[in-house]
Specification:
Layout lengths: L2 E4 L3 H12 L4 E4 L15 E2 L12 H9 L6 E3 L5 H13 L2 H27 L12 E5 L2 H16 L5 E4 L16 E5 L3 E2 L2 H14 L3 E3 L4 E6 L4 E6 L4 E3 L2 E4 L5 H6 L8 E10 L10 E3 L4 E6 L2 E10 L8 H14 L14 E7 L6 E4 L6 E5 L5 H17 L16
Parallel strand pairs: 1-2, 1-13, 2-9, 4-17, 5-15, 13-20
Antiparallel strand pairs: 3-8, 5-7, 6-7, 10-11, 11-12, 14-17, 14-18, 15-16, 16-17, 19-20
The chain binds flavin-adenine dinucleotide.
Length: about 425
């Protein structure tokens, strides 16, 4: 039975990949030409080490402090919105130890499954995306952060994710190429990274060669539906496209798309920025996360990408130069030899991470429409969780046993 996917980001493309593998015809509709969205300019990290969801104890107090610092990694643009208030209320309720403890085993299994699927994809001779499995390095400069990160590292080892704590003098064992100024670090050898732009392009070409139909620069603006079925999609070009099975993987726009079906989804955009230093003579061996400032740095071939910030911005494309400056100014504090300059605005990339109130993605069937599957809300882990999410979507569509227990991921949970 044919499946139509709205959204050609990493989640839509990975869903198409595994549906096609299962012999299912797929069509993808995207309002862009799929060349520069959130799935392209991100930091490319594949992170089994990220098993703690965004909504966790301590996050609210940190966020409140950051709100008043124009260069901090977090900001919520104040606005009177019932949806934002509901989202914040549910975020607040999700920041409990009990909820996080429930989510951790699932997130570990989800991340590990996805990394294993990346290992398979990297073996595929038709896909080329600079997959490197040499771990990531988390660096910290303060005692307070050290305490938090050592707790996370301990938990990681307990649940089977290897974490090696390194004192300042030991960091050069894993990152010999460049000077580092930090109190210490945690090395997660099981993490990996890719060049997301290559991954997306490679997947697009692969899917086109496999007969997946793409309707690009076509925005979904409505649906024709009856009580429990969606019959067709209405596009901005006035076309009406019949659907059999429908997957909505519209990233941060998913809640907006679902309004056309009278469905509510709590979802906010977490805008982030990145710059890519091309052919940089001084590059890192390993990707790193600068813990205090939440900046991600990833070597991608000869290039170095530096990204960060999470601004709940109501999908505003405006670039906040002060915040981007905050990201770049933080770099020499950890890597004194690197002094990246603020590029012109047109060279600053931005993307909208789809954020749920509890930090867990939404993957599953709609409660109302029998032929609708939802797949979004991956926040800062969408690239990492892409293949596993795509596989889960294909299992739902086929009606086969699920590789993971989807209860905590239900799109009907709020
Ligand atoms: C700075 C930054 C760094 C990041 N680093 C990492 C990282 O290292 N590792 C990681 O795992 N994740 C990372 N992420 C997060 C990751 O990029 C996202 O989670 C992921 O890209 C989301 O993918 P998606 O397919 O859900 O959404 P998107 O990539 O946004 O795709 C959604 C698609 O839906 C389309 N669409 C929307 N509305 C409509 C409509 N009405 N009609 C038709 N099409 C529509 C859009 O055009 C878009 O192409 C980072 C994000 C940022 C911003």
């Amino acid at each position: 039975m044919k499946t139509t996917i709205i959204g050609g980001g990493i989640i839509g493309l990975c869903s198409a990949f595994y549906l096609t593998e299962a012999g299912i015809d797929v069509e993808i509709i995207d309002k862009t030409d799929i060349s520069n969205g959130c799935s392209f300019g991100n930091a490319g990290m594949i992170v089994p080490s990220h098993f703690i969801p965004l909504a966790a104890p301590g996050v609210i107090s940190k966020g409140m402090k950051w709100m008043f610092d124009s260069k901090s990694p977090f900001y919520i643009k104040p606005r009177l919105s019932f949806e934002l208030i509901q989202w914040l209320w549910n975020f607040y309720r999700s920041c409990s130890k009990e909820k996080v403890d429930r989510a951790v085993p699932l997130m570990r299994d989800f991340q590990v499954m996805s990394k294993e699927l990346y290992q398979d994809l990297a073996q595929n001779p038709e896909l080329d995306f600079l997959y490197k499995e040499d771990g990531i390095l988390l660096l910290y400069r303060s005692k307070k952060t050290e305490k938090e990160e050592l707790e996370t590292a301990e938990l990681a080892n307990e649940i089977g994710i290897e974490a090696r704590v390194l004192k300042c003098g030991e960091i050069s064992q894993v990152e010999p190429k460049i000077e580092i100024e930090a109190l210490g670090g945690v090395y997660y050898p099981g993490d990996a990274h890719v060049y997301p732009n290559h991954l997306m392009k490679s997947l697009l070409d692969y899917l086109k060669n496999r007969g997946v139909q793409f309707r690009l620069n076509t925005e979904v603006v409505g649906f024709d539906y009856q009580s429990d079925r969606i019959n067709s999609i209405i596009t901005n070009t006035g076309e009406q496209i019949p659907v059999e099975n429908l997957v909505v993987a519209g990233g941060s726009w998913t809640a907006k798309i679902l309004k056309f079906l009278r469905l509510k989804m709590l979802l906010q955009d977490g805008k982030g920025y990145s710059v890519t230093l091309k052919n940089t003579p001084q590059n890192l061996t390993l990707p790193s996360i600068l813990a205090e400032v939440k900046v991600a740095m990833t070597p991608m071939g000869n290039d170095l990408r530096i990204g960060g910030t999470l601004e709940i911005s109501n999908l505003s494309p405006k670039i906040n130069l002060s915040r981007m400056n905050g990201i770049l100014n933080a770099v020499p504090k950890y890597y004194p030899e690197l002094k990246p300059e603020l590029p012109s605005e047109k060279n600053i990339w931005h993307g909208f991470r789809p954020c749920t109130p509890d930090g867990l993605p939404y993957i599953g069937k709609s409660r109302i429409y029998k032929n609708l599957v939802l797949a979004t809300g991956h926040a800062m882990m969408g690239l990492s969780l892409g293949p596993a999410s795509g596989k889960l979507v294909s299992e739902i569509i086929q009606g086969t046993a699920s590789s993971l227990d989807l209860t905590l991921l239900s799109p009907n949970r709020f």
